[in-house]
Design brief:
Elements lengths: L8 E4 L17 H4 L8 H6 L1 H5 L3 E3 L12 H8 L6 E6 L8 H6 L4 E5 L5 H7 L5 H17 L6 E8 L7 H10 L4 E6 L19 H16 L2 E4 L18 E2 L2 E2 L13 E4 L4 E3 L9 E2 L5 H5 L2 H11 L24
Parallel strand pairs: 1-2, 1-10, 2-3, 3-4, 4-5, 5-6, 6-7
Antiparallel strand pairs: 8-9, 10-11, 11-12
Helix pairs in contact: 8-9
The chain binds S-adenosylmethionine and iron/sulfur cluster (SF4).
S-adenosylmethionine (SAM) binds next to strand 3 and strand 5.
Length: 336
């Protein structure tokens, strides 16, 4: 398979700092909480420039909070030159109101807002330091600033991490999405890898519960014309007769008949705040560093070559099976 000159999909950890302390986040686990955190030096971003000019998708976050970047105006001034088809970030929404005008001025065209509850009590018991009220006000402010400029508002999505304590609120999240004009809602399962104390929050311990609330929410979403889905449809035992919204997509990639097991080694890079390049968030192997190499050298280098070969021959031996990747684990239904 041919390798394009540059990757097409970029996930860029512009910072690994955060202004919240969510109970399930790896950052709040005892060892991670001690680490010092920083913003990505602009010189690393500049090393991605040629690739970013032709990128199809840019996600400006990895392990941190986009709005926690110290000198955000300075970074935005630089990154607003990129006009990828999908160009956005995930946020806890805490500072959306403060930066709404700046976002409206930019080329950002999608924002995923993490919303793990539809009531202040539930959301604020999970997303410590974030207030539901601030998220809602931020959404209204962004819509207002975009209208003032006669620009379309970035596409907004709610991302709901489902747990025992919040699952009953997923239909309410759909109601809220309808009220504040958010067009898409996704559910995703809780990972307790960094927080074993949350084990009993996992919905696998309550058979049928997640499916029941998913179906209730699905009906409402249909009524309001909201796109609603689950990132791990298989855990809900949804059969083919169930309507899907993303069945022709695999991590944002269009699924084609000739698709190999995983397209990411031919299209994606994840760049950490420290300038290290990986292929995705599941594979821990470092393919190279922007400290001492160019993007082109890493992308066309030996390590990426070996990774591609291991995916082609489906051994997944170059780090893919070290993490929790569902594709390497043989479950191609990851998001189908
Ligand atoms: C690590 S955050 C970074 C972006 C931003 N700070 C935010 O909260 O949206 C990215 C996403 O991971 C989710 N997340 C964090 N810890 C998780 C866990 N243990 N299981 C599942 N999702 C988790 C968050 O809810 C969020 O939607
Ligand atoms: S806001 Fe995001 S990065 Fe920050 S603690 Fe919460 S999930 Fe983690």
């Amino acid at each position: 398979m041919d390798v394009s000159k540059y990757p097409k999909f970029y996930t860029i950890g512009i910072t690994d700092r955060c202004n919240a302390a969510c109970i399930m986040c790896f950052r709040t686990s005892p060892n991670e909480a001690k680490k010092s955190r920083n913003d990505m030096p602009l010189e690393y971003l500049k090393k991605l420039h040629q690739g970013l000019l032709n990128a199809e998708v840019i996600r400006w976050y990895a392990d941190g909070e986009f709005f926690a970047v110290r000198n955000l105006e300075y970074y935005m001034d630089y990154i607003k030159q990129y006009t990828a088809r999908e160009n956005g970030f995930s946020t806890n929404g805490k500072l959306l109101k403060k930066y709404a005008a700046m976002i409206a001025e930019s080329n950002i065209n999608f924002i995923d807002i993490s919303l793990d509850g539809a009531t202040p009590e539930t959301l604020e018991s999970i997303r410590i330091g974030v207030k539901l009220k601030d998220i809602i006000e931020g959404i209204f402010e962004l819509q207002k600033e975009c209208e003032l400029r006669s620009k379309p508002c970035p596409k907004l999505k709610f991302v709901f991490c489902s747990m025992r304590r919040n699952i009953e609120e997923i239909p309410l999240v759909i109601e809220l999405a309808h009220q504040v004009r958010v067009s898409t809602v996704y559910m995703m399962p809780l990972d307790t890898g960094f927080h074993p104390e949350l084990e009993k929050e996992k919905l696998s311990y309550y058979p049928g519960l997640e499916r029941e609330y998913f179906q209730q929410a699905k009906k409402l979403a249909k009524k309001y014309n909201i796109l609603f889905d689950h990132t791990h449809r298989k855990v809900l035992n949804l059969d083919d007769a169930d309507e899907t919204t993303n069945k022709d997509q695999l991590m944002g990639h269009k699924i084609t008949d000739s698709m190999i097991a995983c397209p990411l080694p031919w299209s994606d890079v994840l760049v950490t705040q420290e300038g290290e390049i990986k292929v995705c968030c599941y594979n821990p192997r470092i393919m190279g560093s922007l400290r001492d190499s160019t993007l082109e050298e890493i992308w066309h280098g030996e390590k990426f070559g070996r990774l591609r070969q291991s995916v082609l021959n489906k051994t997944f031996s170059e780090g893919c099976s070290d993490g929790k990747c569902h594709i390497a684990g043989g479950n191609l239904h990851y998001i189908l």
